[in-house]
Amino acid sequence: MPDVDQEFLALPFRRLADAALTKARDLGATYADFRFERRRSQNVKVRDLALERVGDGETVGYAVRVVHGGAWGFASAVALTPDAAAATAAAAVAVATTLAPLNSEPVELAPEPAYQGTWVSSYDIDPFSVPDTDKVAFLTSVNELLLHSGRVAHVDFSVRQVLEGKYFADLGGSDLVQQRVRVDGDFTATRVDGATGAFDTMRSCALPSGRGWEHIATAYSWAAEAEQMPELLEQKMASPSVEPGRYDLVIHPTNLWLTIHESIGHATELDRVLGYEANYAGTSFATLDNLNILRYGSPVMHVTGDRLVEHGLSTVGWDDEGVAAQQWDLIRDGVLVGYQLNRQMAHKQGFGRSNGCAYADSPATVPIQRMPNVSLQPAATDITIEDLIGGVDRGIYVVGDRSWSIDMQRYNFQFTAQRFYEIRGGRLAGQLKDVAYQGTTTEFWNSMEAVGGPSTWLLGGSFNCGKGQPGQVAPVSHGAPAALFRQVNVLNTAAEATP
User: Fold this and answer.
1) Nearest 5°: phi and psi at 476?
2) Quick one: which of 21, 153, 325, 420 is 20 to 30 A from 77 by CA?
């Protein structure tokens, strides 16, 4: 296991926590927690063969959250002295005191044991230890491969990386140190047809990961994809436009992760189900009266929530309420059986215990219920992508994520992709363009006839899932195998765009 960053360990978070929690207790708080964070970030971008940007950022601060008089109070600060921490706790209590007369229901939290420990995410190379010159040289070398083909006019390659150190303590006795590293990289190639002036783009199918620089340097085959992409992009531009209709779809995990995120991940957030997101990003059709009843999908559908999977972007040791990481079922045998919870919602709705879904995206924000890693599980036997394609007479193979649209109840949706291939008689028959697949969440997932085996399973995800007011962003992963869906509605996006 990598060591915790020594610069983080040198910060006085335990002295600050002691001052803040002591003050909160002395002022009559029935619950109090202290969260300290140091977050480093970097974005490196190379356009064609020139460096466009190296942007570095760092945030250090802490927050105190209390329950006093049955109401929440919250305050944050950046001054690293015990007096400032105590004053921050007093400010949080003052907020709770102001809100208590307006609070119609006293805050109660599901129980959770106290923990003491250290957790570090799984990675080999701290990306912040790699010289910027080496990163720029790597990105430039990939761009050079694409431009050298003579069939690509421009290419942009960006890498983002985050090192997140976090300390949590509460009045119950928890004392937790955590460190997470994550990286994300992708390039986009642009081709221009010199004869017609037509142009199109294609993005790499690389996926973000809770790993270190090794994910960029060795874990993904950037050079192989860069060598193939000029031909793939040329084929795409010359390909026929899809005929609208119903098709069998074989969807690669580089696309399916996003469909999972939008139609399952967000739909099973209990705060969304209860209406807390109604003003901003909508509610959910998967209401509490559907629990253990709703036929969400076909019997081969098994979806889990977890904060445990190795290299997951939402993987932690404990959440931002000190709840230990765990795994649980959201959909089993196609039936809705669970939700994502924090401690307050778990108690209020009678679930007994939180499943560890509280997260704040900075020391200045309040922890809210955020998505864990939400994943579709593979088949027990190793069904390959070729097996799935071989079972399709007339269909489309879908690769890579692109654009999406979904309604405010997470029910009606439309997705596009980086590449679509026609399937004829169980074989790929060239690319198609102007394709989007569309449906309702339950119709789509009930059309899933088969899932691929473990060899097809990949962990996709996003650095910046948005939610809340004020808005917060969170990293989250979604594992998926390839999967076969029968008779899904396919639109022609060029025809849809024509007045």
Assistant:
1) -155, 145
2) 325
* Beta strands in 112-228, from DSSP E residues, in sequence order: 116-120, 154-170, 175-192, 199-203
CA neighbor of 169 nearest in space, from 94, 117, 97: 117
Residue 279: helix, strand or coil by DSSP?
A: coil
User: Using alpha carbons only, what angle is made at residue 482 by residues 185 and 234, rounded to the nearest 5 degrees?
Assistant: 60
Q: What confidence score (pLDDT) does residue 217 get?
A: 94
pLDDT the model gives residue 497: 64
The one-letter amino acid at 183: V
Residue position matching structure tokens 């995410």: 121
The full DSSP string for 374-442 is EEEPPPSS---HHHHHHT-SEEEEEEEEEEEEE-TTS-EEEEEEEEEEEEETTEEEEEEBSEEEEEEHH
C-alpha distances out from residue 117 to 1, 2, 6, 88, 494, Å: 14, 15, 16, 25, 55
d(CA 265, CA 193): 40
Residue labelled with tokens 């990163």? 135
SS3 letters across 92-146: HHHHHHHHHHHCCCCCCCCCCCCCEEEEECCCCCCHHHCCHHHHHHHHHHHHHHH
Beta carbons within 10 angstroms of residue 414's beta carbon:
17
* Domains of the chain by start residue, with CATH: 6-238 (3.30.2290.10), 245-497 (no CATH)
Which residues, listed in sequence order, are joined to residue 177 by a DSSP beta bridge? 118, 167
Q: Which residues contact 354 (CB under 8 A, 6 or more apart)?
A: 110, 112, 319, 321, 323, 341, 342, 343, 345, 346
Q: Please name the amino acid found at residue 239.
A: S
Please indicate, yes or no, whether the overall pTM of this predicted structure exceeds 0.70. yes
pLDDT at 279: 87
Instruction: Point out the residues of the chain with pLDDT beneath 70.
Output: 1, 497-499
Which residues neighbour 326 within 8 Å (Cβ) at sequence distance 6 or greater?
306, 307, 308, 355, 356
Is residue 89 within 8 Å of residue 63, measured between CB atoms? no
Q: Crossing angle for the helix pair 13-26 and 82-99, nearest 10 degrees?
A: 40
Identify the pLDDT of residue 196.
87
**HEC secondary structure over 230-250:** HHHHHHHHHCCECCCEEEEEE
Q: What burial letters (b/e) apply to 105-139, b meaning 16+ CB within 10 Å?
A: eebebbebeebeeebbbbbebbbbebeeeebbebb
- Amino acid symbol at 468: G
Whether the CB-CB separation of 327 and 377 falls below 8 Å is answered with: no
